[in-house]
């Protein structure tokens, strides 16, 4: 598993040489660093073959794997009697049958100059997300092209994604050079075309290498068959390219991962240092509060450290007891980290269900997870032509520039400065899937610069005057389930008791505030977002607000709950079976929906996600509206919202 | 680790970060402790991640009752010395039915490992389980995520895994779902051995070469560990210098011929090794793509 050169030098290793060989080997291993790179190219450019070749030639293939490879080559291979190196790395059953790599696979090899972690990423068009995944942890990209085909649309796309994910070093591997007769002119033409195509991507280094993965030309050693090429072989370049990782020189930043508190005598903050260097005695500032203190100790199981720097997973003990929790960022006192809640960012959508403007997702940045939403899609980017296109939602593999708003300010840095504090993932609140990934460009406004207009009469004062506890009572259910009927009865009863109320009704709001919205998924999300905001204002005014909306999606109702505040939000599930709603059909809508005259009708051809744990669950087939309204009144009393 | 630039240091940092992230995000984690060298390394990394605190979760050992006796002794000694919480689970129903590695082949592994593991995780309500698997072990593992999502049926769907970016792991799950976490994903077998040597991590003595009774069967060297061993006609154990590169149930784990009786000798042997470690595991040879099939069903 070592470098080929080392093995060649040391074999055969006599017993007496064993100790010396081991010492030399360990010394080498101590010295070498790691390069993480990814390979990308279109389907038949030979990525897997190239990686298989690297593993094979650096003697990373064991005898039993080789035997299995020879067996598989005969059975599945595409190279006749030769070994098909691609079979060595194409792991899963399905892709072995289809002959394409469908996911990201990680491979390891080591020479006596560097250790390598290779992300093998798919070339097939629909798998942009996998390439973005592989690129996020890579320092260099090897972009393969087939010498016969030259620079393709996919080559441009992969280079764009590499650039988007912050890769600054690229190798253009002009593969299958044997199939164009080792033609220098062909190679130079491809190189020139590629350099032109990626001119705007800001790559710091770009090296083009003519090679044959199948036959090994210019892979490990320079080939006699390309005498006109005087650059390095692929491996030579990978072993020596300067990645310029100077994170340790940047100002100190450490997102707090976990508060380490074994007993009352010790309180430490564990995390991985994102940038900079820290020493005991250094002044550090807590991003969320601005409080400063000094580092007392850098604690590890191997003893306290005098210094720790970017990449180190440490535990810091601080001089003062100040409030710090997971998600906070500790930063150099002289260069505090900025906080913001509104950003411009690039995002890549990863999921089959589309991104909807205004829908609440979770955003995980560093060790902080905050609810928020894409407030505006500035433009989508055509990843082939880089044209800016307008868009109202994002589909899987779409790339876009967006505005995003979080519900709380977070410590951040632009992605160009810090992958750790500028890169985020987007999580769906219902399925918990990772549905998107993003890179912060800059903050749209700093939260620290944003001051609320201080008003002398506040919400508590307004509520006191009305002698009530403001709240939102949110009625959700199918069309015709009885929401408005019950809400109307509840309001009458509250009003009769002298309570100050207001009803926000779906149909009425759609005549005014939401007149511009239709019934698509995106419009429904926006519909509910606006109603949540309106309800929040009425609550602030001290009112008891009754919201009567179908509100079919759990995510939006949860977002409303978050916007209003848990204690002041009561979800009332008006539970009526669809057959019953259809039978009642007060507005004749079901008849039209079933006959196809209305589309996107909830319960018919659009989904309704029933509440999982509503505060109040009303089954309308069991009682008349009057009784159900009384049940709501009782619940309000039980929660001290009314007396 | 004194040398801060080395790749082992980078691997150590990455693993510690992953381990801490699980404890911060998951409700009820558990360490699936297999007693082998990878588990020993993972245990050390966990101690480092939480120092000066102790491990904030228990260890779980799925005991098929066919492990080498030396493994069980080592397990109990480790737990005692480090003051760890250990849970042991065995598929007692299958055991009572007499399911064993000689008669039941792949079904034995399914019942005593896969099913036992799933039952134990469900029984205790664990939502995250640490394992010591590495991506270099086997082809299908090269595509495994570090946070590997499992459905409520504890199944692994290789086409529906969460994409992983940077160091951002998504540990959020719905009720009944769980996550398997592999902090050693980016380690190689040789990294493991070097780390054991540099950190002086205790391991089961079976990893060191010694004269042991050996039966050669289908090209594998089996070391009978008790009188339940079934001999084929004509088989006679012979003393040979062997050691193990991976450990499991003794009738299913092949030894390798070796004279490497110390860690430096093992590392020296390793960097000239010509056979991959799983090649000695009979379990993987059951059928083509066997590891991927087992993983889908819930095996680690």
Summarize the structure.
The complex is a heterodimer of chains A (643) and B (300). Chain A is an alpha/beta fold and 643 residues long.
Q: Could you please describe the fold and organization of this structure?
A:
The complex is a heterodimer of chains A (643) and B (300). Chain A is globular and about 95 Å long. In chain A, the strands form six sheets. Chain A has a seven-stranded antiparallel β-sheet, with no helix packed on it. In chain A, a hairpin with a 3-residue loop joins strand 2 and strand 3. By secondary structure, chain A is of the alpha/beta class. Chain B is an alpha/beta fold. The two termini of chain B are 29 Å apart. In chain B, helix 3 links the parallel strand 2 and strand 3. Chain B has a six-stranded mixed β-sheet. The chains are: A alpha/beta (643), B alpha/beta (300).
List keywords for this structure.
heterodimer; A: 643 residues; alpha/beta; 7-stranded antiparallel beta sheet; 6-stranded mixed beta sheet; 29 strands; 30% helix; disordered N terminus; B: 300 residues; 10 strands; globular
Please render the helix and strand layout as text.
The complex is a heterodimer of chains A (643) and B (300).
Chain A: H1 4-10, H2 15-31, E1 33-40, H3 47-57, H4 63-76, H5 86-89, H6 93-98, E2 105-110, E3 114-120, H7 128-136, E4 140-146, H8 153-164, E5 169-175, H9 184-197, E6 205-210, H10 234-240, E7 253-255, E8 258-263, E9 266-272, E10 277-278, E11 283-286, E12 292-299, E13 308-309, E14 313-318, E15 329-332, E16 338-349, E17 355-356, E18 360-365, E19 368-381, E20 388-389, E21 393-394, E22 399-412, H11 419-422, E23 423-427, E24 434-446, H12 459-466, E25 471-476, H13 483-496, E26 501-505, H14 506-511, H15 521-540, E27 544-548, H16 554-564, E28 569-575, H17 578-584, H18 589-594, E29 616-619, H19 625-638
Parallel strand pairs in A: 1-3, 1-4, 4-5, 5-6, 25-27, 25-28, 26-27, 28-29
Antiparallel strand pairs in A: 2-3, 7-15, 8-9, 9-14, 10-13, 11-12, 11-15, 12-14, 16-22, 16-24, 17-21, 18-19, 18-23, 19-20, 19-22, 23-24
Chain B: H1 7-25, E1 29-32, H2 37-50, E2 59-62, H3 69-82, E3 86-89, H4 92-96, H5 105-124, E4 128-130, E5 147-150, E6 178-181, H6 189-199, E7 210-217, E8 220-222, E9 238-243, E10 254-257, H7 263-270, H8 290-297
Helix pairs in contact in B: 1-2, 2-6, 6-7
């Amino acid at each position: 598993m070592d470098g080929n050169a080392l093995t060649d030098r040391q074999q055969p290793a006599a017993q007496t040489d064993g100790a010396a060989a081991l010492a030399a080997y360990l010394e080498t291993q101590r010295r070498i660093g790691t390069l993480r790179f990814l390979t990308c190219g279109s389907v038949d450019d030979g990525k897997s073959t190239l990686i298989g070749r690297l593993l094979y030639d650096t003697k990373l293939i064991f005898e039993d794997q080789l035997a299995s490879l020879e067996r598989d080559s005969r059975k599945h291979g595409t190279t006749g009697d030769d070994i098909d190196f691609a079979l060595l790395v194409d792991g899963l059953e399905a892709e072995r049958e289809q002959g394409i790599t469908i996911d990201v696979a990680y491979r390891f090899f080591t020479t006596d100059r560097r250790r390598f972690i290779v992300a093998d990423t798919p070339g097939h068009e629909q798998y942009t997300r996998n390439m973005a995944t592989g690129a996020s942890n890579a320092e260099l990209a090897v972009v393969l092209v087939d010498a016969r085909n030259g620079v393709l649309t996919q080559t441009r796309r992969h280079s764009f994604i590499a650039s988007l994910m912050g890769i600054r070093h690229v190798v253009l591997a002009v593969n299958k050079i044997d199939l164009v007769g080792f033609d220098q002119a062909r190679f130079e033409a491809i190189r020139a075309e590629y350099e032109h195509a990626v001119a705007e991507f800001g790559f710091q280094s770009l090296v083009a290498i003519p090679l044959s993965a199948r036959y090994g030309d210019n892979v490990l050693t320079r080939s006699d068959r390309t005498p006109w090429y005087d650059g390095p072989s692929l491996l030579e370049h990978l072993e020596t390219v300067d990645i310029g990782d100077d994170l340790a020189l940047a100002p100190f930043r450490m997102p707090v991962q976990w508060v380490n508190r074994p007993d009352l005598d010790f309180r430490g903050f564990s995390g991985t240092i994102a940038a900079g260097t820290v020493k005991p005695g250094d002044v550090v500032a807590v991003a969320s509060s601005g409080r400063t203190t000094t580092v007392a100790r850098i604690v590890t199981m191997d003893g306290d450290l005098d210094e720790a720097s970017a990449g180190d997973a440490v535990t810091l003990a601080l001089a003062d007891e100040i409030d710090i929790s997971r998600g906070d960022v500790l930063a150099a006192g002289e260069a505090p980290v900025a906080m913001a809640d509104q950003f411009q960012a690039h995002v890549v959508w990863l999921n089959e269900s589309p991104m909807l403007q205004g829908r609440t997702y979770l955003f995980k940045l560093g060790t902080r997870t905050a609810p928020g939403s894409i407030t505006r899609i500035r433009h989508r980017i055509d990843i082939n032509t880089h044209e800016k296109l307008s868009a109202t939602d994002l589909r899987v593999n779409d790339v876009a520039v967006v505005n995003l708003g979080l519900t709380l300010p977070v410590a951040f840095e632009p992605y160009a400065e810090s992958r750790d504090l500028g890169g985020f993932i987007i999580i769906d609140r219902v399925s918990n899937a990772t549905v998107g990934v993003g890179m912060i460009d800059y903050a749209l406004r700093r939260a620290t610069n944003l001051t609320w207009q201080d008003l002398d009469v506040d919400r508590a004062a307004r509520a006191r005057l009305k002698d009530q506890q403001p709240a939102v009572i949110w009625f959700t259910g199918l069309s015709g389930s009885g929401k408005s009927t019950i809400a109307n009865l509840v309001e009458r009863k509250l009003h009769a008791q002298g309570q100050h109320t207001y009803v926000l009704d779906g149909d009425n709001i759609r005549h005014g505030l939401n007149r511009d919205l239709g019934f698509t998924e995106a419009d429904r999300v926006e519909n509910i977002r606006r109603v949540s905001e309106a309800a929040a204002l009425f609550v602030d005014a001290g009112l008891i607000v009754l919201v009567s909306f179908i509100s079919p999606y759990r995510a939006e109702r949860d977002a409303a709950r978050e916007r209003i505040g848990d204690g002041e939000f009561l979800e009332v599930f008006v539970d009526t079976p669809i057959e019953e709603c259809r039978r009642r059909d007060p507005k004749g809508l079901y008849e039209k929906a079933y006959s196809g005259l209305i589309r996107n009708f909830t319960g018919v051809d659009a989904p309704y996600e029933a509440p999982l744990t509503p505060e109040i669950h009303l089954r309308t087939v069991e009682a008349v509206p009057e009784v159900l309204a009384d049940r709501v009144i009782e619940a309000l009393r039980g929660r001290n919202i009314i007396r | 680790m004194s040398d801060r630039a080395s790749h082992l240091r980078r691997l150590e940092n990455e693993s510690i970060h992953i381990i801490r992230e699980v404890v911060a995000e998951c409700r009820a984690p558990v360490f699936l402790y297999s007693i082998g060298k990878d588990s020993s390394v993972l245990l050390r990394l966990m101690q480092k991640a939480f120092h000066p605190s102790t491990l904030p979760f228990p260890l779980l050992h799925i005991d098929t009752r066919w492990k080498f006796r030396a493994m069980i002794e080592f397990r109990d000694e480790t737990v005692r010395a480090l003051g760890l919480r250990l849970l042991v689970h065995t598929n007692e129903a299958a055991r009572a039915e007499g399911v064993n590695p000689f008669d039941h082949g792949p079904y034995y592994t399914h019942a005593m490992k896969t099913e036992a593991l799933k039952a134990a995780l469900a029984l205790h309500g664990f939502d995250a389980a640490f394992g010591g698997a590495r991506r270099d072990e086997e082809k299908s593992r090269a595509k495994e995520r570090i946070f590997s999502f499992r459905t409520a049926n504890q199944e692994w769907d290789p086409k529906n895994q969460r994409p992983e970016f940077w160091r951002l792991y998504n540990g959020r799950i719905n009720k009944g779902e769980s996550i398997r976490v592999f902090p050693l994903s980016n380690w190689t077998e040789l990294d493991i051995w070097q780390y054991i040597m540099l950190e002086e991590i205790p391991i089961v003595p079976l990893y060191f070469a010694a004269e042991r009774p050996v039966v050669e069967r289908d090209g594998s060297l089996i070391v009978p560990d008790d009188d339940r061993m079934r001999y084929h006609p004509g088989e006679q154990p012979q003393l040979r210098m062997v050691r193990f590169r991976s450990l499991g149930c003794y009738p299913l784990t092949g030894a390798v011929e070796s004279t490497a009786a110390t860690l430096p000798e093992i590392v020296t042997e390793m960097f000239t090794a010509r056979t991959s470690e799983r090649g000695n595991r009979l379990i993987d040879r059951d059928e083509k793509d066997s590891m991927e099939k087992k993983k889908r069903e819930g095996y680690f």
